[in-house]
Amino acid sequence: MGLEYERVEDIDLESADKVSDLIAQMGEGGGFMASHLSKALDTLEQMERDECLKFLSFPACIVSTGCRGVIKTMVEKGLVDVIITTCGTLDHDLARAWAFYCRGSFTADDAELHKKKVHRLGNIFIPMENYGIALEKGLRPIFEKLYEEKKVWGVRELIERVGKSLDDKKSILYWATRNEVPIYVPGIFDGAFGSQLWLFWQDHRDFSIDPFRDEQELSDLVFGCRKSGALIVGGGISKHHTIWWNQFKDGLDYGVYITTAMEWDGSLSGARLREGISWGKVKEEGEEITVEGEATMLLPFLIKGLIERLGIRRVK
Question: What percent of the chain is helix, strand and coil (3-state, nearest 5)?
Fold first, then answer.
């Protein structure tokens, strides 16, 4: 039985007027992760046009960078229905709404930075007063108002109310609140936002959060949709919670995964989406692709290409 082959085509930069055109040519070029990026764009477009429930999961680290603007745009333009992320996303989004971060270097002297009261996140420098102190000053009065309203809050519900207090249009929380995109953080205490909740609880012992409400909402969303898809950036708890819930409806119909992790260590972060098929977290016949590369380089091109393909010009 013969095999069908498609010819490798050279990329013609002069004919690629748009990012989406260039990515399409990268697919026709056949190598190597370029073709995976092209399929990722095709899959995201199919996911959008199929009108399925669209999940976005990502780790906090990229929110400390300019990639925050890419995620904000996805929420603003209606490309996301549900966000599942880590506590640090709240930390960085709020800290940058109330203060600022700086460009730095991977090779900086960390002992010297510590003496100067600067945190280093990769090659991002975060002045200490712009992180923990800024979050404490900003969150404490919000928590006080919420406490006066009622004593028990769902995590998603609480995050939404914090988002309503913001007036920064560069903020992910700002747009998620206004476009009714729920943000779920299954590991809410693993970050400064969670620590501020714990500190507030020290002198408000009848104040509590109820994570069961969030899980029920996720259940209702998953079982209430016809089809579901996910753009998953990085691994960890946000990735797992996304695919975990979707296994109960026989798996994701569409999945795009961006990762730098290695597959051979058996970690969830290293696991390609195809591995999820064996668990029922991705459908056997589903459209899935893993793009091996660093998200802050890939995500801006991928989402810009998607916006061009869909012809999106106004907000949701």
Answer: 50, 15, 30
Look at residues 185, 181, 63 and name the one whose alpha carbon lies nearest to residue 122. 63
The reply to whether 166 falls in a domain is yes
**Prediction pTM value:** 0.95
Catalytic residue positions, numbered: 281
Q: Which residues contact 170 (CB under 8 A, 6 or more apart)?
A: 68, 69, 72, 96, 97
- Segment 47-75, tens digit of pLDDT: 999 989 999 999 999 999 999 999 999 99
Residue 280 belongs to domain with CATH number = 3.40.910.10
Q: Is residue 4 part of a domain?
A: no
Query: Is residue 2 in a domain?
Result: no
Half-sphere exposure of 57 (CA within 13 A, CB side): 27
Q: Distance between CA 78 and CA 314 in Å, rounded?
A: 9
| pLDDT tens sequence across 150-163 | 999 999 999 999 99
- pLDDT band, residue 2 (cuts 50/70/90): low
In sequence order, what are the beta bridge partners of 121?
Answer: 124
pLDDT at 316: 43
